[in-house]
Amino acid sequence: MKISKAVFPVGGLGTRFFPITRAIPKEMLGIINKPLVHYAFEEALTAGIEEFIFVTRHGKDSIEDYFDYMSIHSEYFNLKMGSVCYVRQNEPLGLGHAVLCAKNLIGNETFAVVSADDFILHRESCLGEMIKHYDGSNMVATMGVDYRDVDKYGILDVDYETGKLVIAKSVDEKPSIASAKSTYAIVGRYLLSPKIFDVLADLPPGVGGEVQLTDALLQMIPLCGLVGFRFDGKRFDCGSKSGLLAAILHVASQNSELRNVIEDFCGSRVEGFR
Ligand code: UTP
What are phi and psi of 149, to 5 degrees? Predict the structure, then answer.
């Protein structure tokens, strides 16, 4: 199935990165010389996305400046860029609310949602792999996490598994460790039916007082099902400081020039312990 539109919700406050995110959007934090949002965009481009819809807010103008620049310097991408547009989320009322803000730009077609702070290194494109397996159910990227971390994620209640697909019978946003039904966590890639807009429009705030996309996915299970996709590749939670640092180190370690810096640093630390 062809999916041509993707929503990039970049309206969050990024409180875990205060104070830098008071002036720089979290999505513009750099993995060496490219911001997180560059990688997310490239992943969507490789997946065949043609229309890129950013849900942005006050203080996020540098994202628009960045893609203005990229549109005239498309040599930074391996494919032609497609069209980019922006819609505002006036208040950070949650991921579900951010997605709802894109309603008029999506219309009546299945669309993707990509969270740039989930940085996924994949031989091709995590989103592209999901689109290849899309079967009409709402689909989320999923991975097994440590059971002590389940309260940071939307967690699938598994009906059954088949190949890379995890068929969910329910889903719970940030459950307690004791009540979590599995360790399959949702990470920030989604393929969604446009029917989700009607559900989101009537959804009351959930966990943390935010309109939760997970709650809309739960309501839609009787309508179209919910499938977790166990993607290939390595994911870094760049919404957290430790995840961002791990991603930077990983990317640097793949680069012959920068690898020396890491080796020098590690070598001097080892000597320091002697
Ligand atoms: P997070 O839950 O990571 O929230 O959002 P956050 O505000 O970005 O960061 P912290 O937790 O305060 O440090 C997950 C994704 O949803 C987007 C974020 O930009 C991020 O891509 N989001 C969240 C919105 O677009 N709007 C919102 O109101 C909330």
Answer: -105, 0
